[in-house]
Amino acid sequence: xxxxxxxxxxxxxxxxxxxxxxxxxxxxxxxxxxxxxxxxxxxxxxxxxxxxxxxxxxxxxxxxxxxxxxxxxxxxxxxxxxxxxxxxxxxxxxxxxxxxxxxxxxxxxxxxxxxxxxxxxxxxxxxxxxxxxxxxxxxxxxxxxxxxxxxxxxxxxxxxxxxxxxxxxxxxxxxxxxxxxxxxxxxxxxxxxxxxxxxxxxxxxxxxxxxxxxxxxxxxxxxxxxxxxxxxxxxxxxxxxxxxxx
Length: 246
Known about the structure:
By secondary structure, the chain is mostly helical. It has eight helices and no strands. It has helices spanning about 1-35, 40-65, 70-75, 80-90, 95-110, 115-140, 150-160, 175-245. The radius of gyration is 30 Å and the shape is elongated. The N and C termini lie far apart (about 80 Å).
């Protein structure tokens, strides 16, 4: 029983530090893309921050695995965390570090009981829009046939792609950019489904609450009616006894 308790304590203690590291990763990833003319020292510092943040989340996975009571079960139930931790080691591309860190951040955030579904969905939308815009800008800006050259173009493209509108005024021309587009479209559809299901569940819960309250009131009225009938019967019986005595 010590291991599960230790694992829960570890997850609670590391939630905020890991969230702060995720914000640091966002800044480090965005700076070289938004400011392509930044100095080499700034680019190197951002690169180091990216690897440190990914390493921190990977270390968090290893520690949680060590604290788990049934480690094989932990690996099977957290296979996405494992893939995200191993992915950047296979081929150290910047985009792989982005995908891996996003996966680790997302999986880690889901384990926090105080994070509500609505907050998680809103954060996922903002994160996907931001990182999707930066990622597509980084791969499309230098493409000879590309038409996504500014951050504004990239953000607009991310909005239209995630909402599956697809105006076609901006579109990726590279293979990596198209892979990003597929990922954003699938993510947008999935998040839309989560939001729709959440709203439907809220309405159903409200209807069920109203139905329960209506049944409670109906039952209270029925009980009250029976009590009134019983009182009337008692009053009629007492009145009959008085008449008989006279």
